[in-house]
Amino acid sequence: MGMMGEEKYKAFDYHIRSLSSSARDSNFANDPSLLNSVKSLCDLCRSEKSEDLIARVYPHLNRIFQRCLSSTSQSQTSNGLLLLAILQFFLDFGDVVLHDADPNLRTFFKSCLSCEFADPIVAEATLDFLNANKKKLSSSFPTLLPQFFPLLLKLIAWNGEKLEKSFCRVFPGLISQGSFLPLFPSIVDLPILVVALEKVEKSSGSLVGSSIASIQKSTAPEMLLALMDEAYTGSTIGDGGADSESEDSSTMAVADPFFIELLKDENDGLAERHWASPAVAAALQAAVSMPMSDRLKQALRMTPRLFDMYTAIAIREVNDSLICALVPLLMTRYSNLFPEKLFLYEVQKRIIELMLAAFNRSPSFIALLKKPIVDRLGEAYDSPAKTELALQLCWAIGEHGGGGEAHKDAARELFESLELLLYENLSSSRLGLRESALGSDSAKSRKSSQSRLLCFVVTAIAKLATYHRELLPRARVSLTKVARSRISDARVWKRARDYLGLMNEPGICLSILGPCGSPSNGMRKPGTVNWSEGGTKMISHLPFYLLGAQEGPPHDFSFRDVLPGR
Questions:
Q1: Calpha distance 218→221 (Å, rounded)
Q2: What is the mean pLDDT of residues 495-512?
Q3: Cα–Cα–Cα angle for 224, 225, 226, nearest 5°?
Q4: Which residues 6+ apart lie within 8 Å of 450 measured at CB?
Q5: CA-based Rg of the chain, rounded to a whole angstrom?
Q6: Distance CA 151, CA 394 (A)
Q7: Which among 183, 414, 421, 517 would be 20 to 30 A from 103, CA to CA?
């Protein structure tokens, strides 16, 4: 203390007395000078680096922190900024005073941020605090942000793009082994979260100062039912109507888990979201048909960008077991998204890219996930989105040989599913059964979709049989049926005919249809040249069909003779 200048000592003494008097004042939270005193004392402790100073300040701040928390439920005044300033002291000097800040951090999220996430000042200050202490939080409190990621998603959903850059810097800290899987549906459901929050605000007033979690745990369940009724059916219990009572009783039980899961504050694992509920589907369609709020529009724009960050981290840092567990979730959610056209396009495109990247990283996933893949192929007719998903899965099955050489049983079962899909289309396609009942444009669209799917199925069958040669006889039978069918779209039967011709030349067929392989995995494809090694290769390594127009012995040729000039 003796090293401190006189002016600093006076300032220190003033602020200590201010803290002491505020701690005794029952209305201390309304004192604007209190926050200034806390920040000034923190700055003095940093600049002086005096353990004696820190030890004198600590008891006052600890006492005020506890009093703030106990008064949060009764006071209408925001304590968020004050608590964050005290938390900063705990993080900076906890080692000096032997204080573990973990309980304080968790209590701040549960008792303060859960009530004040909608306050733009507190929201911005919270993100600034998390960014300023990113290294400390990740090393000393690695489970904190993964535990409270739903609350932080509520914060960004409500406050929008103005805090997006700051939130994106925090985002990697939300991902851990326990949060990676449940984080995916929470990200893609960000627009639905906005809809739910806006409905709660409309029904119960400002979100600032009231915890939604407390509403969920209320002893008056009729209040929650009233909020859900408006959120999912677009009407209130008091609206009446001829059959409103029966509708309420039938839909509330289904909507309830979806609503509570969506608005939770903490990560409690991967929970099923009840998309099958007609009430949920009707509510989402109503949200799209009505003029969208600016907050919802921002969420629709932010979600693809957050998903990009999630994907980058998944591919770069997450282990194979979690990625494998994620793929079925990707397939399930592909057709269950907020129904806005541009949003659907952007998110579905990213889901496919992540799924295919996972298969490319570990082709064995295709064999391990045989059951959900076969299920998705069986749903190929249900909707355009499911048709597109099935089409992409067909491509992945063929491209990666059904999981690889070590998974022959899985490859055979996948082959059988492709056969079934093919024969259903050739005989009595469910896509075609309703064409007479549809308008011409709709019928053409379905027909085009069917042809595109068939092309992918035919290709997948040919590629799978090229990799697993024991499937070749069955593949020839399947492709022959397609080639002889002469269905209206010539692209399909011509493709089948071409593949049949290729199968008569095994080396060329493996070069063209075989999956990507390298000598390291024991898969060498005849007729394939690694052009980067061209300077060390003899011309005899070239496939003979590329040399068909050349004359003379092989050693007379150079690559310049074979490759077209520039």
A1: 6
A2: 87
A3: 90
A4: 425, 429, 431, 432
A5: 31
A6: 38
A7: 183
Q: Is residue 547 helix, strand or coil? A: helix
DSSP string, 260-322: HHHT-SS--------TT-HHHHHHHHHHHHSPPPHHHHHHHHHHHHHHHHHHHHHHHH--HHH
Please state the three-class secondary structure of 50-88 as a single string.
CHHHHHHHHHHHHHHHHHHHHHCCCCCCCCHHHHHHHHH
- Contacts of residue 68, Cβ cutoff 8 Å, sequence gap at least 6: 29, 79, 82, 83, 86, 112
The predicted model scores a pTM of 0.81
User: Rounded to the nearest 5°, which phi and psi values hold at 330?
Assistant: -60, -45
Half-sphere exposure of 280 (CA within 13 A, CB side): 20
Tokens in use for 531?
Answer: 């052009």
| Residue 49 three-state SS | coil
Q: Tens digit of pLDDT for each residue in 287-302?
A: 788 899 999 999 999 9
Could you tell me which residues come within 8 angstroms of residue 211 by beta carbon, excluding any fewer than 6 positions away?
A: 114, 115, 265
In eight-state DSSP terms, residue 515 is P
Tokens found for residue 340: 């806005």
For helices 408-426 and 384-399, what crossing angle results, to 10°? 140
Q: End-to-end distance of the chain based on CA atoms, in angstroms?
A: 80
Question: What does the alpha-carbon distance between residue 13 and residue 33 come to, in Å, rounded to a whole number?
Answer: 15
d(CA 175, CA 319): 12
Residues in the chain, how many? 566
What tokens appear for 358 in the block? 């996972």
Give per-residue pLDDT as tens, 446-475: 778 888 889 999 999 999 999 999 999 999
Tens-place pLDDT, residues 196-216: 898 888 877 777 766 665 555
Residue type, 283: A
More confident residue, 60 or 446: 60
- Burial of residue 522 (CB within 10 Å: 0-12, 13-18, 19+) is exposed
Distance CA 98, CA 488 (A): 79
Q: Which of 397, 409, 418, 396 is nearest to 482 (CA)?
A: 418
Cα separation, 116 vs 106, in Å, equals 15
Tabulate helix, strand, coil % of the chain (nearest 5).
Answer: 75, 0, 25
Which letter does DSSP use for residue 25 in this model? -
